[in-house]
Design goal:
The complex is a heterodimer of chains A (184) and B (88). Chain A has 184 residues and is mostly helical. Helix content of chain A is 66%, strand content 0%. In chain A, helix 1 crosses helix 2 and helix 6 crosses helix 8. Chain A is globular, with a radius of gyration of 22 Å. Chain B is mainly α. Chain B has one domain. Chain B is built from 5 helices and no strands. Chain B is elongated, with a radius of gyration of 22 Å. The N and C termini of chain B lie far apart (68 Å). Classes of the chains: A mainly alpha (184), B mainly alpha (88). Chains A and B meet through helix 1, helix 2, helix 5, helix 6 and helix 8 of A and helix 2, helix 4 and helix 5 of B.
């Protein structure tokens, strides 16, 4: 008896933001990321019968998404020459000769680690948002991540401003407690 | 009316002002009243600290998600595909 069931009807609501956040840290372009996520859902739908229920739906979808991202990079690199790594001895710049000094790792430059941590943190935040009731999650995402104006959200969702702030308050309290437990 | 103008506010109002100020939507008076409240209310101080920390973490993480409209488009496409598959 498989532990996990598959139900594509809930995929978009449950996983699209998580997958999107996963993709955007790897491709750096919203449109591409969106296409890749959409492709992933379609591919998942086509190969649903291969889902054995050993992993959770989300893990399974992420594994498809990983292949899609790799394929994407393969495709944009497939034109001849693009995939080559060229190592030049500074033939095109003025500062010939002191390449070692220029290329030595800067120990104060921690951007790679920071990015990695940010990626994980982003996914942790999405995990916490996923635990919120649907309405709270939606309002919280629109307000906090997409930076919508209060008025715009109120119009979109047909709620009053004070209603919105109550929802935001509850969502913030829950997310803060969740992150406290799982991240710090 | 006189109650509304007082500088001393309830904890409910303080947390409301605090939430607003996380999105830079609190007015000068709301921020002032919040800060006065925080001087003497330990519980709200704690909430305010946590709230600010949450904002910092979210800004720092550059977390992203799909736009509502894009998500709806994706959902429509997917549901169409789902129906097609059911028919086959």
């Amino acid at each position: 008896m498989p532990k996990h069931q598959i139900d594509p009807n809930k995929w978009i609501d449950s996983y699209s933001d998580y997958l999107f956040n996963y993709t955007i840290t790897r491709v750096r372009d919203r449109d591409t990321a969106q296409d890749l996520v959409q492709d992933t859902f379609f591919a998942g739908l086509k190969s649903m019968k291969n889902f054995k229920g050993e992993a959770s739906e989300r893990t399974w979808l992420i594994s498809i998404l990983k292949r899609k991202i790799i394929d994407y990079y393969r495709k944009i690199n497939s034109k001849k020459g693009k995939a080559e790594v060229r190592i030049n001895y500074n033939s095109d710049t003025e500062d010939e000769g002191d390449w070692l000094e220029e290329r030595v790792a800067d120990s104060f430059d921690k951007t790679a680690e920071d990015n990695l941590e940010n990626t994980e943190l982003g996914l942790a935040i999405h995990n916490c948002i996923a635990k919120l009731p649907e309405k709270q999650a939606q309002v919280f995402k629109m307000k906090t991540i997409l930076n919508y104006e209060t008025e715009a959200i109120c119009n979109e969702l047909n709620i009053t401003a004070s209603n919105l702030w109550v929802i935001i308050h509850r969502a913030r309290t829950t997310v803060a407690a969740c992150l406290e437990k799982n991240w710090f | 009316m006189s109650k509304k103008n007082t500088l001393f506010i309830s904890c409910d109002e303080a947390s409301h002002n605090c939430d607003k100020s996380q999105y830079n939507e609190a007015s000068f008076w709301e921020r002032l009243k919040l800060n006065i409240h925080l001087l003497y209310c330990k519980a709200c101080r704690k909430y305010s600290n946590n709230n600010t920390k949450l904002s910092q973490v979210i800004n720092h993480s550059k977390v992203d998600c799909l736009d509502i409209k894009d998500k709806q488009i994706m959902k429509d496409c997917f549901e169409k595909e789902l129906r097609d598959q059911h028919q086959n």
